[in-house]
């Protein structure tokens, strides 16, 4: 069994470290795996047909652990019949927070009240304040604005009033975003559950003393957490609906302590998780992939 | 039998030209016995309350028999579909055509001639682009001059002709975080192209566009249109492209190869049908409404 571990070559650093983590797990499981930078394989269309550039010396892999968000490459690999972990569609759905909520809606998943922001092609100055009044009516203040494409909590903003909200919208311009209810009972804390296949393999409770967000990138500290069956079930269910083989699912605490879905990360940070819990989720991920590939072959 | 109702959704941030198209289509709806309602995307809120998908706004009910979606707001289009309303073009089609890289990938392997295209590897603005070597590989495959296009661009904006290596290296650095593609320059089509308007699997009108001073033939870039009678080969490619993309209506742009043969350049879900009418005397709006009316009747 031969696989690729694709990571983003221009990000390097932590992302390459993760790729190495997967490579180590693969070696321990006896899986032959090669670390591949996304930009070393180019997706091309020539004579109307799709092709991959830069891989003539490489055999087609049995699987790709796709630890990147390069959706063109992901799609091009899938068009060549390669199974990706995660699949391109799951990566796309998780990367776009608006689409994450839209996909999870009507599946009995508790989530904060959310309004998807309108598409603004270019900030033409045509602003219908009636719209923002309606958003206020639905959500009220304080209000969270999240950019649809953001990581590490760095594009999540807490709006205390109308003036702040309108200034933020103008600042965001054509960038897509969502409006969301602040779950006050979860201020500065959340849960991260790492799902692999149909189980939660590790979890942590993150707490921030100085911010409403509990992201590690925003200075939160983490301690190991033993998830309740309700939390586990919600996390696994979200991953399944999104078609993710593995996902870092963030849950908030509702007023009664009940889990409320915050977001789902297709490529969750595993080094922090290992440091906190002592569990290397990469092992479980590679074992899951090996099982899936073997099962595909039998069919 | 009750009267059929439709919404014509347009982008409220888009200015007068977009609204003019919505009114143009609404006039046709009235003439064909369909009651239209022109709705700005700023008047509809795609919301989630208690984990359920909903639609908010003073125009949000009752829902129409179908939506003529003259916008690219992907959240709103998907939300309407979630609520069970037929949306034309579909959210999936709109999203694919909005992304030029994805358009080429989806059209690949369907016997549609396209310029040789390489999709830019995913990069991030914050991290920038560290590895420039691969762009030389790309230039080796495509040759100079080559074309760089942002995947999300309209009216010929964000399309660049790159004459040499220096220009390439400079432009590439600006591309960090911007989905884009690299394309062979089709010299035989310099400053001229064809726009074929497809509706319901047929080409209903076409024009040839000629620019006096630019390699692009967009009217927004100063090109002049002339009525055109498409060859069978041109019509076949346009119709096939629209079919592969699942577009009920689309403006398909074709370039001229060295032997005059058609090469697909791009596909626009919401093509400028008023310009097309002024040039050809053919009103694609009338055909679009007639097609959708029949299609919905048969649902």
CATH architecture of the largest domain in chain B: 2-Layer Sandwich
Dominant shape of chain A: globular
Helix fraction of chain A by DSSP (H/I, runs of at least 4): 25-40%
Strand order of the largest sheet of chain A: 13-12-11-14-15
Distance between the termini of chain B: 15 Å
Number of strands of chain B: 15
CATH class of the largest domain in chain A: Alpha Beta
The largest β sheet of chain B comes out as: 5 strands, antiparallel
CATH topology of the largest domain in chain B: D-amino Acid Aminotransferase, Chain A, domain 1
Any overview of this molecule?
The complex is a heterodimer of chains A (299) and B (299). The longest helix of chain A has 18 residues, at 281-298. In chain A, helix 2 packs antiparallel against helix 3 (88-95). By secondary structure, chain A is α+β, with helices and mostly antiparallel strands. Chain A is 34% helix and 27% strand. Chain A contains nine helices and 15 strands. In chain A, the strands form four sheets. Chain A has a five-stranded antiparallel beta sheet, with helices on both faces. In chain A, strands 2-1-5-6 form a four-stranded parallel beta sheet. Chain A has three domains: 2-85, Rossmann fold; 93-109 and 185-268, ATP-grasp fold, B domain (D-amino Acid Aminotransferase, Chain A, domain 1, 2-Layer Sandwich), CATH 3.30.470.20; 114-182, ATP-grasp fold, A domain (Dna Ligase, domain 1), CATH 3.30.1490. The model of chain A has no long low-confidence stretch (mean pLDDT 93). The radius of gyration of chain A is 20 Å and the shape is globular. Chain B has 299 residues and is α+β, with helices and mostly antiparallel strands. Chain B has three domains: 4-88, Rossmann fold, CATH 3.40.50; 96-113 and 188-281, ATP-grasp fold, B domain (D-amino Acid Aminotransferase, Chain A, domain 1, 2-Layer Sandwich); 117-185, ATP-grasp fold, A domain (Dna Ligase, domain 1), CATH 3.30.1490.20. Chain B has nine helices and 15 strands. Chain B has helices spanning 16-31, 74-82, 91-98, 100-107, 133-142, 165-174, 232-245, 273-280, 284-297, and strands at residues 4-10, 34-40, 45-49, 52-56, 66-70, 87-88, 117-119, 146-150, 159-162, 180-184, 192-199, 202-210, 224-227, 249-256, 262-268. In chain B, the strands form four sheets. A five-stranded antiparallel beta sheet of chain B has the order 13-12-11-14-15, sandwiched between helices. A four-stranded parallel beta sheet of chain B has the order 2-1-5-6. In chain B, helix 2 (74-82) runs antiparallel to helix 3. The longest helix of chain B is centred in the first third of the chain and has 16 residues, at 16-31. The interface between A and B is large, with 62 and 62 residues. Strand 7 (114-116) of chain A pairs antiparallel with strand 3 of chain B, so a sheet runs across the interface.
């Amino acid at each position: 069994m031969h696989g690729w571990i694709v990571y983003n070559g221009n990000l390097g650093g932590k992302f390459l470290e993760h790729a190495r983590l997967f490579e180590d797990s693969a070696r321990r499981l006896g899986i032959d795996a090669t670390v591949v930078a996304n930009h070393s394989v180019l997706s091309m269309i020539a004579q109307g047909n799709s092709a991959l550039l830069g891989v003539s010396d490489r055999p087609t892999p049995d699987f790709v652990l796709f630890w990147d968000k390069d959706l063109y490459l992901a799609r091009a690999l899938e068009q060549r019949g390669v199974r990706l972990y995660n699949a391109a569609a799951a990566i796309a759905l998780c990367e776009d927070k608006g689409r994450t909520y839209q996909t999870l809606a009507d599946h009995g998943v508790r989530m904060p009240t959310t309004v998807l922001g309108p598409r603004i092609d270019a900030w033409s100055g045509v602003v219908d304040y009636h719209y923002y009044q309606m958003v206020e009516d639905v959500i009220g203040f304080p209000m969270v604005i999240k950019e649809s494409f953001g990581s590490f909590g760095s594009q999540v903003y807490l709006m205390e009033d109308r003036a702040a909200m309108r200034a933020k919208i103008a600042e965001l311009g054509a960038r897509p975003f969502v409006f969301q209810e602040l779950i006050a009972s979860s201020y500065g804390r959340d849960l991260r559950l790492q799902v692999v296949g149909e189980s939660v393999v590790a979890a942590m409770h993150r707490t921030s003393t100085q911010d409403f967000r509990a992201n590690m990138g925003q200075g939160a500290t983490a301690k190991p957490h033993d998830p309740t069956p309700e939390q586990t079930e919600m996390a696994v269910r979200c991953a399944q609906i999104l078609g993710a083989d593995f996902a870092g699912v963030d849950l908030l605490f509702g007023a009664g302590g009940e889990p409320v879905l915050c977001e789902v990360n297709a490529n969750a940070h595993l080094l922090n998780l290992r440091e906190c819990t002592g569990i290397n989720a990469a092992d479980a991920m590679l074992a899951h992939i090996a099982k899936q590939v073997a099962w595909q072959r039998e069919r | 039998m009750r009267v059929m109702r439709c919404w014509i959704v347009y982008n409220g941030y888009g200015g007068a030209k977009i609204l003019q198209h919505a009114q143009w289509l609404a006039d046709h709806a009235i003439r064909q016995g369909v009651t239209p309602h022109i709705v700005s995307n700023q008047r509809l809120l795609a919301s989630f309350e208690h984990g359920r998908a909903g639609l908010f706004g003073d125009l949000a009910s009752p829902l129409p028999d179908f939506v003529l979606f003259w916008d690219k707001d992907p959240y709103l289009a998907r939300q309407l579909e979630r609520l069970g309303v037929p949306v034309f073009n579909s959210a999936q089609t709109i999203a694919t055509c909005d992304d030029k890289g994805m358009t080429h990938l989806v059209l690949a392997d369907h016997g549609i001639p396209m310029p040789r295209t390489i999709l830019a590897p995913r990069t991030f603005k914050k991290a920038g682009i560290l590895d420039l070597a691969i762009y030389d590989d790309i230039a080796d495959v495509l040759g100079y001059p080559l074309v760089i296009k942002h995947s999300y661009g309209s009216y010929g904006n964000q399309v660049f002709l790159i004459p040499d290596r220096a220009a390439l290296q400079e432009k590439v650095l600006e591309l960090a975080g911007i989905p884009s593609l690299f394309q062979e320059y089709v010299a035989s089509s310099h400053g001229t192209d064809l726009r074929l308007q497809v509706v319901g699997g047929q080409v209903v009108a076409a024009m040839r566009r000629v620019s006096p001073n630019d390699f692009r033939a967009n009217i927004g870039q100063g090109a002049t249109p002339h009525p055109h009678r498409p060859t069978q080969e041109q019509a076949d490619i346009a119709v096939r492209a629209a079919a592969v993309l699942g577009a009920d209506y689309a403006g398909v742009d074709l370039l001229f190869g060295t032997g005059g043969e058609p090469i697909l350049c791009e596909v626009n879900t919401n093509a400028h049908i008023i310009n097309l009418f002024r040039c050809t005397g053919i009103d694609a709006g009338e055909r679009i409404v007639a097609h959708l009316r029949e299609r919905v009747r048969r649902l």
